[in-house]
From TrEMBL, chain A:
Pfam families: ATP-synt_Eps. It comes from the Eukaryota. PANTHER family: ATP SYNTHASE EPSILON CHAIN, MITOCHONDRIAL (PTHR12448), ATP SYNTHASE SUBUNIT EPSILON, MITOCHONDRIAL (PTHR12448:SF0). The lineage of its organism: Eukaryota, Viridiplantae, Streptophyta, Embryophyta, Bryophyta. This is ATP synthase subunit epsilon, mitochondrial. Residues 55-77 are annotated as: Disordered. It comes from Sphagnum jensenii.
TrEMBL record, chain B:
Belongs to the ATPase gamma chain family. PANTHER family: ATP SYNTHASE GAMMA CHAIN, ATP SYNTHASE SUBUNIT GAMMA, MITOCHONDRIAL. InterPro entries: ATP_synth_F1_ATPase_gsu, ATP_synth_F1_gsu, ATP_synth_F1_gsu_CS. It is found in: Membrane. Pfam families: ATP-synt. The keyword Transport applies. The lineage of its organism: Eukaryota, Viridiplantae, Streptophyta, Embryophyta, Bryophyta. It is a peripheral membrane protein. This is ATP synthase subunit gamma. Coiled coil: none annotated. Keywords: ATP synthesis, CF(1), Hydrogen ion transport, Ion transport, Membrane, Transport. The keyword Signal does not apply. F-type ATPases have 2 components, CF(1) - the catalytic core - and CF(0) - the membrane proton channel. CF(1) and CF(0) have multiple subunits.
C-alpha cells in the first residue's frame, strides 16, 4: 500500500511509512498522556497490549515475536 | 449441599444394609465374618462406603457449578464491550457497503479463533468457513499456481486446524491474545501488521458473531482495499464528490485512510464478538457436560448398587447354605 495517488502530496506520516491506524493511535496515546492523574493511570492500564506474532515463510513458521506495551508507570509514555 | 445429603443418604443405606445382614444371620460364626467384613471398611466408614463414589463426584459437580458462575460474569463483561463496539463499523458499512461476493485477485482471509479449548464447535465452524472461502476463490480463478489467497490466523485453535492442510497459504499468526483483555490499541496494532505485510485487494474476516448465549452466527465481513472501492463502486465516488474535502487530502487519500480505519474497527469488533461467543460456548459446553456427567453418574450409581446387592445376596446364600449343610 504505497502513498497517495498521483498528484497530491501525501501527509508527512504517510511519507514516513505510518499507516493511518498507527497515526491515529499515536495521537490517541498523546491525548491519553495529557490526562490528569487518576484518569491517566486508568486509561493507560486499559490500553495494555500483548500478543505474539509469528510470520510464515513458504509454509514454515518463523520465530515468534512478542509485541507488548510495557506496563509503564504514569510518568513515562 | 447436594453431596452432603447424598453422603448422609449413603450412610443411612449402609446402616440399613448392615442391619439386614445382621438380621439374616443367626449363628455366631457368621457374626465373625460380618465383623471381618466391616473391618475392611466396606460397610461401615462413610468415606469409603459403597456410596463413597457419590461424595467424590459431588465435589466435581460443585466445581463445575462455580466455574459456570465465573464464566457467566466474564461473559457479561465482554458482551457489553462487544455490543458497544458495533457502533464503530455500522457507519462504515452504511457508507462503503459490504460486498461478500466480490471477485478480486488477491484475497486475505483473517480467521479469528480462540486460544483455549472447551468452547464447543465455534472454532471448527470458523475454520470450515475459511476453507470454503478458499475453495470459492479457487473456483473463481481457475487452476492458478500462485496462491491468490492468504491466511492470517488469530488464535491457537484456528492455527492447529488450518496448519494441517493449508500450511503453504498461511502468512501470519497472532497468538496469546487473551493475556490482556481486548482493547482497540491491540487490534489496531494487529491490523497495522497485517496491512504492512501483505498486498491485497480484499480482506475477508471470518468470526463468530454473538447473537445470544446459545446462538453464535459465523460471519464473514468483507473489506475492500481503497483501490477496489474506487474502481468498483461508481455511486460511492459520485457521493464522495458531492462533499468538499478540506485540507490537502484528495479523495483517494481520504478513502485510503477510511479503508485502513475500517479494517481496524472491524478487527476490534470481530475480536470482541468472537471472545463473547467463546465465553457463551464455554458456558453451554460446561453446562451440557455437567448435565451429562450427572446423568451418567446417577445411572452408574444405580448399576453399582444393584451389582453390590447381588454380590451380597450371593455371599449370604453361600453362608446360609453352608450353615444349613453343617446343621443338617
Amino acid at each position: 500500500m504505497s502513498g497517495a495517488a498521483a498528484g497530491a502530496a501525501a501527509p508527512y506520516w504517510r511519507n514516513a511509512g505510518m499507516t493511518y491506524i498507527s497515526y491515529a493511535n499515536t495521537c490517541a496515546a498523546m491525548v491519553r498522556n495529557c490526562l490528569k492523574e487518576p484518569h491517566k493511570t486508568k486509561a493507560l492500564n486499559r490500553e495494555q497490549v500483548y500478543y505474539k506474532l509469528q510470520t510464515y515463510q513458504e509454509g514454515e513458521p518463523q520465530k515468534p515475536v512478542v509485541r507488548e506495551t510495557p506496563p509503564a508507570p504514569p510518568a513515562k509514555e | 449441599m447436594a453431596s452432603g445429603s447424598g453422603r448422609r443418604g449413603g450412610l443411612r443405606l449402609a446402616r440399613i444394609l448392615s442391619g439386614n445382614v445382621n438380621s439374616y444371620l443367626s449363628s455366631g460364626a457368621e457374626k465373625a465374618s460380618t465383623a471381618a467384613w466391616r473391618s475392611t471398611g466396606q460397610l461401615s466408614s462413610a468415606e469409603i462406603a459403597p456410596f463413597g463414589a457419590r461424595s467424590v463426584s459431588g465435589q466435581i459437580v460443585r466445581n463445575r457449578l462455580r466455574s459456570r458462575m465465573v464464566a457467566a460474569s466474564k461473559l457479561r463483561n465482554v458482551q457489553v464491550k462487544a455490543e458497544n463496539s458495533r457502533g464503530l463499523w455500522q457507519p462504515f458499512t452504511a457508507l462503503l457497503g459490504d460486498a461478500p461476493a466480490t471477485k478480486v485477485d488477491k484475497k486475505l482471509i483473517v480467521t479469528i479463533s480462540s486460544d483455549k479449548g472447551l468452547c464447543g464447535g465455534i472454532n471448527s465452524t470458523v475454520v470450515k468457513y475459511s476453507r470454503a472461502l478458499v475453495r470459492l476463490n479457487a473456483l473463481d480463478h481457475g487452476p492458478d499456481d500462485k496462491p491468490a489467497v492468504v491466511y492470517v490466523i488469530v488464535g491457537e485453535k484456528g492455527k492447529a486446524q488450518l496448519q494441517r492442510d493449508s500450511k503453504k497459504l498461511i502468512s501470519l499468526y497472532f497468538g496469546e491474545m487473551r493475556k490482556q483483555s481486548v482493547c482497540f490499541t491491540q487490534c489496531s496494532m494487529m491490523a497495522d501488521e497485517i496491512l504492512k505485510s501483505n498486498e491485497y485487494d480484499a480482506i475477508q474476516m471470518v468470526y463468530n458473531k454473538f447473537n445470544s448465549v446459545v446462538s453464535f452466527l459465523p460471519t464473514v465481513a468483507t473489506l475492500l482495499s481503497p483501490q477496489q472501492l474506487l474502481a468498483g463502486n461508481q455511486e460511492l465516488t459520485g457521493e464522495l464528490d458531492a462533499y468538499e474535502i478540506e485540507g490537502a487530502d484528495t479523495k483517494e487519500e481520504v478513502l485510503q485512510n477510511l479503508g485502513e480505519f475500517q479494517f481496524a474497527c472491524m478487527m476490534f469488533n470481530a475480536m470482541l464478538e468472537n471472545a463473547t461467543s467463546e465465553m457463551g460456548a464455554q458456558m453451554s459446553a460446561m453446562e451440557n457436560s455437567t448435565r451429562n456427567a450427572s446423568d451418567m453418574l446417577d445411572s452408574l450409581t444405580l448399576t453399582y448398587n444393584r451389582s453390590l446387592q447381588a454380590s451380597i445376596t450371593t455371599e449370604l446364600i453361600d453362608i446360609i447354605s453352608g450353615a444349613a449343610a453343617l446343621e443338617g
